[in-house]
Design a protein that fits this description.
The complex is a heterodimer of chains A (about 190) and B (about 180). By secondary structure, chain A is mostly beta strands. Chain A is built from no helices and 16 strands. Chain B starts with 6 loop residues before the first helix and ends with a strand. The chains are: A mainly beta (about 190), B alpha+beta (about 180).
Chain lengths: ~190, ~180
């Protein structure tokens, strides 16, 4: 969508579930459905398919670019349960990032590139988690889903019980941002800290 | 240019058109007694059809009830375990009955709808619903139904039949529904 004119542009005739601009703004990582299977594709800004990024019978969704544009974190059930994986855009190599928990999804790369926030399901419900981009033990931030980093990397905005909440990345502070009727979900922080 | 005035409209656009940056609980035929391997959770999407004018989001749509088993419709829903698109023995039996009806009604075309329970995220459930619809479609094809008569669509968790957060409700929502388009 052109934010100035309000005009929408159709980018793909395929059924698409998500699209994320590359950091340089030239390409889009998108999850598209083909014959019932969802894989990741690299699209031009005009929506032309430049390259298939994943080709697996499992579900591949929720692409998230690294700040340098070299890698894409995504959610896949290729290992039997939904987990976070990292794809090298150039080589196509894929490594698994999360091993704790049976349902981890919605990755978001921190602005510095050192951390990845994601949604993880625990016995108590869904939680906002963070983990080093190179792997390791995850850190529980707060209850919620669909995290998005503040541009300075100090905070995470996310949804919880139909409301948007803001938490420091260590989880020590946590406050509700929205209220009222309806569900508030899937927040995305603008590039400017306001 | 058409303007979206409801969140359903936005979802419609969100599924069919790739957009960047980016709940009423009618009773119906109970699902089989299969239980998922556990799991708890909170709400997490997928709508590719607009509800009729005046219908509140979250209500069962007209097109869902018109030909469904609760109205004596010819084709029965099938149900799935949590986070699975595997066809159970019971689902396969239902699909065989559905295939028989389709072979006796050769003019019928069917839209196969994949649905999920509320747990999980929007995008993942859309993909899971697509997998469920495709699994049902592929099995019908192996039973001799022409693929030209079958189309699939995923609604993810967007059109639940039941909105309570408990396993009984979730079982009803993890389904594939068959909508007869023409007879």
């Amino acid at each position: 969508m052109d934010l100035q004119s309000g005009r929408d542009t159709r980018l793909s005739s395929a059924v698409g579930y998500s699209g994320r601009w590359s950091p340089d703004g030239t390409t889009i990582a998108a999850s598209l459905e083909q014959e019932g299977n969802v894989d990741l594709f690299l699209l031009s800004a005009e929506g032309r398919i430049l390259r298939r990024l994943t080709d697996h019978p499992g579900i591949d969704v929720s692409p998230a670019w690294s700040p340098d544009g070299r890698e894409i974190a995504f959610c896949s059930d290729r290992g039997g349960t939904p987990q976070i994986y990292i794809l090298s855009v150039n080589s196509g190599q894929v490594r698994r990032l999360t091993f704790q928990g049976e349902y981890n999804t919605s990755p978001a790369w921190s602005p510095k590139g050192d951390q990845i926030a994601y949604t993880g399901r625990t016995a108590g419900g869904f939680r906002i988690m963070t983990i080093s981009a190179t792997g390791g033990d995850p850190w529980e931030v707060a209850a919620g889903e669909d995290p998005s980093w503040s541009p300075d990397g100090r905070y995470l905005v996310f949804s919880s019980r139909g409301r948007l909440r803001l938490a420091s990345k260590d989880g020590r502070s946590n406050k509700q941002l929205t209220g009222g009727g309806g569900d508030d979900t899937s927040p995305a922080w603008s590039a400017r800290l306001q | 240019m058409m303007r979206c005035v409801s969140k359903w409209c936005w979802w419609y656009g969100g599924i069919l058109v790739l957009v960047l940056i980016g709940s009423g609980c009618p009773k119906r035929t109970p699902p089989p007694s299969e239980l998922p391997p556990g799991g708890v959770g909170t709400p997490g999407i997928g709508e590719t059809g607009l509800p009729p004018a005046g219908q509140a989001p979250g209500e069962t749509t007209r097109k869902q009830v018109e030909f469904g088993p609760e109205r004596g419709g010819p084709l029965q829903d099938i149900y799935f375990a949590y986070d699975s698109f595997d066809l159970s023995a019971e689902a396969r039996e239902t699909l065989r009955a559905n295939a028989n009806w389709l072979q006796n009604n050769s003019q019928a075309r069917v839209e196969i709808e994949g649905h999920c329970d509320e747990r999980g995220t929007t995008e993942y459930n859309l993909a899971l619903g697509a997998k469920r619809a495709r699994a049902a479609r592929d099995y019908l094809v192996t039973l001799g139904v022409s693929p030209d008569r079958l189309s699939t669509i995923s609604y993810g968790e967007e059109l639940p039949l039941c909105r309570e957060s408990n396993e009984s409700c979730w079982q009803q929502n993890r389904r594939v529904h068959f909508l007869v388009l023409t007879r």
